[in-house]
Amino acid sequence: MQDPAHSGPTPVTIWVWLLVLVVAGLVLLFFEEMSHTTITILLMAIAAVKATLVLRHYMHLKAQPAMLYVIAFTPVLLAVVMALILIPDVAYR
Amino acid sequence: MSAAAASEPLRSGVEGGEFARMPLGRAGMWWFLASEVMVFGTLIATYSLNRVAAGGWDAERAHVNARIAAFNTFVLLTSSLTVVLSLQAAHEGLRARARRFLLLTVLLGCVFLGMKSLEYGTEIAHGYTPASGPFWSYYYLMTGLHGLHVLGGIVANVLLWIGLGRPGAERLEPRIEFLGLYWHFVDVVWIFLFPLLYLS
Amino acid sequence: MSVHAPAHAAVAHETAHAGSFWRSHVFSVDHKTIGKQYLGIGIGMALVGGLLAYLIRWQLAWPGTPVPGFGWVPEPMFYEGIVPETSYNAFVTMHGTIMVFFVAMPILLGAFGNFLLPIMVGAPDMAFPRLNMMSVWTLGLASLVMLSSFFVENGPASAGWTGYAPLSADATYTADVYWGLNLWIIALMLEFASFLMGGVNFLTTAINMRAPGMTLWRMPLLVWMQLVAAVLFMLSVGPLVAAALMLLGDRTLGTAFFLPERGGDALLWQHLFWFFGHPEVYVILLPGFGIVMEIMPVFARKPFFGYRTVVWATIAAGALSFVVWAHHMFVSGIDPRLANPFSVTTILISVPFSVMVGCMLLTLVGGSIELATPMLFALGTLGTFLIGGVTGIYLGAAALDMYMHDTYFVVAHFHYTLFPSVILGGLAGLYFWFPKMFGRTLNEPLGKLHFWLTFFSFNAVFIPLFFVGLAGHMRRLYDPTQYDLLEPLMDTFPFVSHAFVTKAAIVLIVSQVLLLVNVVWSLLAGEHAADNPWKANTLEWATSSPPPHGNFATLPNVYRDPYEYTPPGSKDDWLPQTAPAAGAAR
Amino acid sequence: MLSWLPENISTYGRDIDGLFALIVWVTTPWFLLMQGIILWSVLFNRRRVGRRAWYLRGDTWGQLAWILVPTAIILGLDFLIDARSALVWAHIKQRVPAGATEVRVTAKQFNWEFLYPGPDGRFGTDDDLTLDNELHVPVGQNVVFTLQSKDVIHSFFIPNVRLKQDVLPGRSIRGWFNAEKTGRYEIACAELCGISHYTMRAFLVVHTADEYRDWIEEKWPQAASAAAEPGTPTATELS
What integer pLDDT is reported at residue D234 of this predicted model? Predict the structure, then answer.
């Protein structure tokens, strides 16, 4: 069975991309004119990209059956649903 | 057969698709990680909602040391790399090399915890303890729980490292991958904690 | 390269070494022994929970009078046998906590899940035997920590089994119960860890270690129910682990999660608790339903009606159970506009359960029913659960819940959903699988007597409580005579009175002695059980009673679904899953 | 069933009792039908020699209709109940009538404090009056209360008014009721709030219009003397 790690980008390249994204996040802070919420949203987007990189390449999700995606993302979905429902009671109490 | 293929071979004889014939350790670890995602997901959700309610906690967040956290992010990302390299080495049958990378992961984990205790020390010295308000309560709970997970990962990695040095290590080799899954999960949690708590 | 055969042999070989008593009974990694250990913990804690119920009922019926049998208990928990107000809330809290977390879960998930799941799917043992042993030992430790909280200063936790903050977040609010509630939190977190380990084992074993021919759609319904319950528990326990850590922080480190004066929010605990709480009650209900659904086809000699429909209904109920939780909080101060969506989801979730109950009913219709003790308990479970389900509709309507919330109507409702599933369903399972678990047969007449006593006394306790609740009786009252409104409920009406209910509760508790007598006597002198006394189709009846290490001498092949009863054109009225497809004539 | 409910004295209490009766009439027939099926099948389908059970797998839509059609009907009836409940809920919880008698209710471990604004109709003035465990209201008038708690969660429960609302520390929750019958009724705390939770009893005293005026004069003697000037309307004349 062809070793997927050889065909795709090597771990070190993934590592470099991750560091680039960390630096991108830090650089983002120097744009004073952006409001806090936009910065937070952008940082979360960067974090999501980093997480996907780690999940797909380091955790081999790329080579795994679809069911693992279900197991990995159902709890994330549940946490988001809970957060949305709690908005009226916690965020605007 | 010492070097398993890229991943543990699928188990034949079980009805069903690839997921049903997946190695037991990987399936079990992913179920465990699902429940862990809910713990940190809840903390991140309640932290964010309370932050919106309290108007952003900008004042308190200015006292957090982003530099140490950024360095820690670098340390944790590198430890994820060393785990993958250790797994690759194991798959190529180079067990000694795999063990060296595993040891490197453990050391990086210790550096992470060391920097974190330094960070906590300075904050407490400045008088910011878990009892100084809602932000600090969430800050210490989230980073503390994450730190405990890093510590748990270190202990497991050390036991695995010892086990791989002893005879009969073939049975333990797949565990490098499964423990690696846990370690990458701890890294992903930090990927979300770092910006939320330190940056914006 | 097939790792299939050697892997199974290896596991069977490894457990065969269990020579010494310690290795085979105490520190065992055999899922069957672990299942019995869970059963032992569950029954032991059920005795504690039952005694607490006796104390609560006695104090409610005759406030301030000494409770027979408890005169010896030292101060401050009792004063010459009289329950003081400081201890009453603690007994109510511990009764709820012990019954939900240390009786229902260990018996339904731990005992029946561990013992039956591997055999029913044709696996030699659990996927991770050592993790399985750790899970039962973690539960043992959790039980010890919970019981030890009775003996610490100021007694055990007394903020309700739901532990609402800020009452639970600051010791001064509960008359300085400090270590009592801290140990309560630690014991609960250990219990969560234990059932997380169990859940990982259940899911991996059932999905990844099924015997050849055992497709997902040929798995017995009990296995499906245990799987959905395991997934519900694993996905819902996260928020309560986080909330428990927050509560522990508030109590010990002075953090500001739930205490308003420190900047926290009291409502957050209720949301996190009930986000876990509602899936949790389905984690308890579904295995109870699974047991009943296994037993009914066997004694009606009739295929289970709508197997796939019930499986999809279970999955739908599981998914819906995550967006239902705020119906526990209609009047708790949440944004009133939230009540409507949660009323709708509460009604939607009653649909899968009415489908399941309907399928169970149609399994009975047209059957050739034999009323052996397991079947009696299964029918008792279905009949009593119907009352629980119907009364849920009253509480699901937000406007009516405004009046009924926190009254005895709610107490009666959740006892009518929990008791049938745990006690009646659990006993149905015990009487049905006792021959398989222990290799001995239980006494049938004693079993039937135990059923009728338990069934009637349970209804005699909780049907009157519906009306007591309607009359406006609040929950967790130490002494109802304080209120003129509740004075008539003490002893004036023939049935609807605390006095009658307490007498019925005593009968209910005492009649459990029949079970202990039956079990102990059968273990010692009961006749040896056959491999398949009930002529059932599922895999556990295709091996010896009790099954050997590794469960099967030779790994079985599965040819059909488990409910092939009275197949047309066949002389026998059953056709085991392992019987080859060719000629089934025997 | 309805006879067990305490006597209702409030306007929306009738809606709640009506909703209760509706649910009784909707669910009881189904309940008896289901129990009847169990009893019927247990009595008439007993095992006898030569009796073969039906081979009914329930995997065809035709057979499943026996389940799905009744379930659809149940779903429809449930939504009927829910629609009615949502209306009553919105009427009680989502709207607070204006121009009513105001009172502030403070719950604390183990008693209720009722703060009356006094004749000037405003809180925080010196003529405010706090009464322990006594809520005096005029009959037939809307009464708006603001719930606050000093320590833990309590629950403001008046069985005869069919009213219950938890009192959250750190928040103030407004609600209302309109008592139509005079008399003295009990108020209780319905949420576990500590060791003496059972002693948190208070009284709702509903006065007729002139009884209420006498009560005001008795409680605010100086206002009675000032009542000579027409300009000081007491709370009752406002609405």
Answer: 45
Query: What total number of domains does chain B contain?
Result: 1
Q: What is the CATH number of the domain that holds D16?
A: 1.10.287
Q: What is the CATH number of the domain that holds C76?
A: 1.20.210.10
pLDDT value for D51: 83
Contact criterion met (CB < 8 Å) for C361 and D5? no
Chains A and C touch (3+ CB pairs under 8 A): yes
- Which pLDDT value is given to residue D144? 94
Query: What CA–CA distance (Å, rounded) separates D67 from C362?
Result: 8
- C-alpha to C-alpha distance for B187 and C489, rounded to whole angstroms: 60
Same domain? For D158 and D178 the reply is yes
Helices (H), C478-582: 498-510, 512-525
Which positions in chain C touch B14 (Cβ < 8 Å)?
Answer: 4, 208-210, 212
* CB proximity B59 to A under 8 Å: no
Range of the domain at B91: 24-199
pLDDT at C236: 95
Domain membership flag for residue C522: yes
Q: Which of D22, D89, D111, D165 best probes binding to C when mutated, by most C CB atoms within 10 angstroms?
A: D89
Q: Does C218 score more than 50 pLDDT?
A: yes
Cα angle vertex A59, ends A58, A61, to 5°? 115
Report how far residue D177's alpha carbon sits from residue D162's, in angstroms, rounded to the nearest whole number: 9
Q: Which residues of C are less than 8 Å from B131 in CB distance?
A: 253-256, 262
**Structure-block tokens of residue D34:** 């289901």
Same domain, D108 and D87: no
Report ipTM (2 d.p.). 0.92
Nearest-CB residue to D169 (from C260, C305, C470):
C260
Mean local confidence (pLDDT), C182-190: 97
D126 and D210 co-located in one domain: yes
Instruction: Read off the CATH number of the domain in which B77 is found.
Output: 1.20.120.80
Cis peptide before C166 (omega within 30 of 0): yes
- Kindly report the nearest CA distance between residue C356 and chain B, in angstroms: 26
| pLDDT score of C7 more than 80 | no
Q: Quickly state the pLDDT bin for D120 (edges 50, 70, 90).
A: confident
User: Best mutation site among A77, A82, A90 for testing chain C: the one with the most C CBs within 10 Å?
Assistant: A82
Distance from CA of A74 to the nearest CA of C (A): 8
**pLDDT score at A2:** 39
Number of domains in chain D: 2
Last residue of a domain, one of D94, D115, D133: D94
D90 and D151 in a single domain? The answer is: no
Residues of chain D contacting C366 with CB distance shorter than 8 Å: 41, 45, 53-54, 56
Whether residue D153 and residue C166 make contact (CB cut-off 8 A), yes or no, is yes
| Sheet strand arrangement including D202-207 | D134-138, D202-207, D183-189, D154-158, D163-167
Name the residue range of residue C99's domain.
32-542
Of A67-71, B162-166, C501-505, where does the model show the most confidence? Answer: C501-505
For residue B184, list chain A residues with Cβ-Cβ distance below 8 A: 54-55, 58-59
D116 and D10: one domain? no
Of D94, D113, D146, which marks where a domain is finished? D94
User: What single-letter DSSP state applies at residue C109?
Assistant: I
Structural domain boundaries, residue D129 = 101-238
Residues in chain C with CB shorter than 8 Å from the CB of D23 are 393-394, 397, 400
CA-to-CA separations, D188 to A3, C486, D203, in angstroms, rounded: 70, 11, 9
Give the Cα-Cα-Cα angle B145, B151, B154 (nearest 5 degrees).
150
> Residue D230 pLDDT > 50, yes or no?
no
> Contacts from B129-132 at CB under 8 Å and sequence distance 24+?
B129/C253, B129/C254, B130/C249, B130/C253, B130/C254, B130/C255, B131/C253, B131/C254, B131/C255, B131/C256, B131/C262
The token pair that represents C424 in the structure block: 């009646």
